[in-house]
Amino acid sequence: MNETKELIDYIIEGVQEKKGKRIVVADLTSIGDTICNRFIICQGNSPSQVTALVESIHEQARKGCGAKPYAVDGLRNAQWVAMDYGEVLVHVFLPEVRAFYDLEHLWADAKLTEIPDLD
To answer: What is the CA radius of gyration of the chain?
Structure first.
């Protein structure tokens, strides 16, 4: 549990370092049969910012707590990139793609924590 919290903190740091916006942490632990315990959802304004966010998350998690994603998918067109850290799945979206898939609404029964934007 502490390791998961630490990983989440480093992931959030990675997002904020590259000015990612609208960070939401979804706690899925009270929901049965989920693929992970937490979702972290955030967005960048362009494919290049989405890519920069993914790289920053990767770097912060690796340096901070030695965590490496098991898989990263979606980098080729960088509209929605998913990073699988086992207990934690990170979703980095373009705003219009995030609005279309609306994961927060899909997982509305999860406990959602919004992290304030830094600026």
So the answer is: 13
